[in-house]
Amino acid sequence: MAPKEPLVISNKDEMRKWSRAMRCQGKVIGLVPTMGYLHEGHLTLVREAHKHANVIAVSIYVNPGQFSPNEDLSTYPSDFDGDIRKLMSVPGGVDVVFHPHNLYDYGNDKKNSNVAIEGDKMVSCVDQGGLGHETWVRVENLQKGLCGNSRPIFFRGVATIVTKLFNIVEPDVAVFGKKDYQQWRIIQRMVRDLDFSIKIVGSEITRENDGLAMSSRNVRLSTKDRQNALSINKSLLKVKSAVEDGQVHCEKLRNLVVQCVTEAGGQIDYAEIVDQENLEKVEFINGPVVLCVAAWFGKVRLIDNMEINFKMDVRK
Amino acid sequence: MAPKEPLVISNKDEMRKWSRAMRCQGKVIGLVPTMGYLHEGHLTLVREAHKHANVIAVSIYVNPGQFSPNEDLSTYPSDFDGDIRKLMSVPGGVDVVFHPHNLYDYGNDKKNSNVAIEGDKMVSCVDQGGLGHETWVRVENLQKGLCGNSRPIFFRGVATIVTKLFNIVEPDVAVFGKKDYQQWRIIQRMVRDLDFSIKIVGSEITRENDGLAMSSRNVRLSTKDRQNALSINKSLLKVKSAVEDGQVHCEKLRNLVVQCVTEAGGQIDYAEIVDQENLEKVEFINGPVVLCVAAWFGKVRLIDNMEINFKMDVRK
């Protein structure tokens, strides 16, 4: 069978019309939200979506609402034609690619100078653009800590754009990668708290053959940094091994990561072992936790994580 | 024709199922969100909804998320049977009354002690209940000022519950009373910013024969305060008359309200003339503005407002 060419939709109303027509035909609609520049990790999300839905929409939109003005919005890579080819290579393909131009353009004649500043300079590229968008969704506890520390407006931007996409695409199922672990948990909680009728599926991390977690940002690593960045996954495996050997003291485990990544020339943003549900720090492992790491290699910030489903057996 | 008895639904999934069935039949679904204890003002909203929709849902739910622990949640009046009778009296009636028990109960086994405190004691009855709800929607600029000053968590609570109701009922049209002017503008902006596919209709203020704006809180006024509270509407009419006489200086107009209400024994919370769209204070009237008033009579806080669609004609 020839690969299926997806319908490309850029208009919100057209997107919703398609989705509503599908729903009235009894189809289950799956959404895979992406920022484009797709790699094998994204294609895994699409394959996962096929397990839960009859028709699949992939959104490709680099969301200015989750970037601070000092972050890498302008250099975020893109390759729309390549993305379409890759999506067509997945068995079953995808039905729709939703590729809007600007989801914050409300057709205002004049720019709004009333830039919403929260706290001290905590402003996204949307606020900076002055388009008058002023509604933000926050998952107040889960957005704190981990990536929330160094990217204070990030999860506000993610929760808000995902709300917008959910309201435009109206899916029944949405698939998120567990590489962005905090994001995945935030979206799950948001869906519960705001009563979206959408099942959120978490898809396991896809890695390169050498273990590096796939990311659109990987292409921006120098050859040397690309090699050094392998230390992240190596450090996770060291921790795995240490836990299997009976080490449950999180500070000790965390130090393994810091040492391994730092020795390889990386700069740790954070390395934390937290509860899988509420993402609160854990001192000793005695239940389902996740080790989350963020580190800089050159000008590129990478994240990775590993779930540890360890239950101390006191009968030993 | 016998009055139509509405279907009463308390379950979220059942509510959404009804709505989706209607949509697939091509019906336009109207929603009138209320906190119950209905009066003629609410019935006006239902009549307005009939102009825009084929089937009408009215939600009756007193939202703890918009009440501070020190506010009047526990004494908020209710009369469910009376509400149903009143809704049946409207020509065409209503199709569904959505009457959930607790929209913040997510079936957690244990209460969540992780109470989200923002700033200093800015906590709603939902946070206080410790049910673990932690996702809030804010319309950052419009929520400031006017009622936002004395009720700092109010509009966060309103925007969040309306988002929840929109996601459960999935209406095409929702009708809000312009008596809650700031709320109406906030919901309009939220719908635009979050891409809800819902038309927001503002319905004019309904008044008692003597001019008092209808409110569920009016029953809690003493006979004397009920009489004194007429000063609010009287003050609006004074301003109307002054504007017609050429007075455009907002400070002068505002003082008419303060004087009239204070002399009647009311205590002004605010009296402001603001732009109809962005709700920012205006010094001189030269375009569409709205005079918004909030005042206490005894232990009851009342609000009222009047749009002034005045355009200075420089050719005069």
TrEMBL record, chains A, B:
Entry superkingdom: Eukaryota
Gene Ontology BP annotations: pantothenate biosynthetic process
CDD domains linked: PanC
Pathway assigned in UniProt: Cofactor biosynthesis; (R)-pantothenate biosynthesis; (R)-pantothenate from (R)-pantoate and beta-alanine: step 1/1
InterPro entries: Pantoate_ligase, Pantoate_ligase_C, Rossmann-like_a/b/a_fold
One function term, GO molecular function aspect: pantoate-beta-alanine ligase activity
Keyword ATP-binding: yes
Subunit structure comment from the entry: Homodimer.
Family as reported in the entry's similarity comment: Belongs to the pantothenate synthetase family.
Protein name: Pantoate--beta-alanine ligase
